[in-house]
Amino acid sequence: MNAEILSVGTELLLGDIVNTNTQYIAKGLAELGINVYRQSVVGDNPKRLKSSMEESLGRADLVIVTGGLGPTKDDLTREVAADVLGKKLILDEEILRGIQGFFDQIKVTMEKSNRKQAYLPEGALAIENPNGTSPGILLEEGEKIMILLPGPPRELQPMFDNHIRPRLKKYGQGLVKSKVLNIFGIGESTMEAMVDDLMEAQDNPSLAPYCMKEGLILRITARARREEEADAMIRSLEEKVRERLGSYVYGTDHESLEEAVVEALLKKEYTISVAESCTGGLIAAKITNVPGASRIFPLSIVTYSEASKNTLLGISKENLKSHGTVSKETAIAMAKGIRKKGGTALGLAITGVAGPGGGTAKKPVGTIHIALVLGDRVFHEEKRLLGDRNRIRHMAAKHALNLVRKAVMEQ
């Protein structure tokens, strides 16, 4: 079975709303082994909506339409779908009673316009919507299937999971399973070069790179008849990827970099204190966002000024004057100072020029110094980051966390 997803709503075309429904449905269909060949968006215009539905039905076996099932005049999905399939709209008294009961429960008078939500194209199956007043609609015409779902994600997602997925499972081409490997500390082109032959040689399982906001990912996808077969295929390819990329792989699926860092520290029973300058507490915020971080993270200080570096971390004025606040020497002194103050196994520090001003020829905007002290070992990294102030600070915090992760892994 081949599928298309058609999203309805002028607000989507204008960019007022992020279209998360398409992503959710596409992922669900892929897991069922149903190919999604096209995704499209159309505004609340009956002529264009009709044309889009007809085109989708002409190409695909399954068309899932989201949005346009509400009570207002511009909600036209059910009417247009009935027209396209040549079916009459018939009032379903049971659905109408359910809608009326919803409004009675919240003690609000039901408007006449809400009655339109109780109409179904003849022969259609209503899909229960426990989180809203618009039921979903399933239509079958010959070998074609059209499914209409409401736009709000809190309504659509449980309807898709509880009713649509079970009905479509029989149409899937076996089981499709994916695993994501999270990558940090390497460029996209370099990563691709390191695993290019694996991507070229593999069809099932497949290996595909993506560049995301949080870093790079490699997605391994396997098709099989049974889950155990898919798992074995994924595991075999994952081992080969990890051999190539080594410590650049920091986690899998939804695991964040900070979660990987906290997990590594907990495993080693290491504690860490952090001194931040240019990131202004972002590193601390990321660490404390992870449950259980309090066991390894007793102290964080933002030493944004030169004076605070002197008074709180014990860095001499002479040191600061001779090397500057943005330097390898200052970063290392900060790491040693915060480790001593916190009485922790590790001391992490960061200083830099986040911009947009303040840079020099020798230390341009984006210059970052990160230092880590662990036992008698001192680690230092200098980065030249690009982007606006927010991106530089965000990436600087991630590079600092990654330095901790790599250092702990080596112990």
Automatic annotation (TrEMBL):
Pfam families: CinA, CinA_KH, MoCF_biosynth. SMART domains: MoCF_biosynth (SM00852). It comes from the Bacteria. Residues 4-170 form the MoaB/Mog domain. Belongs to the CinA family. This is Putative competence-damage inducible protein. It comes from Isachenkonia alkalipeptolytica. The gene is cinA.
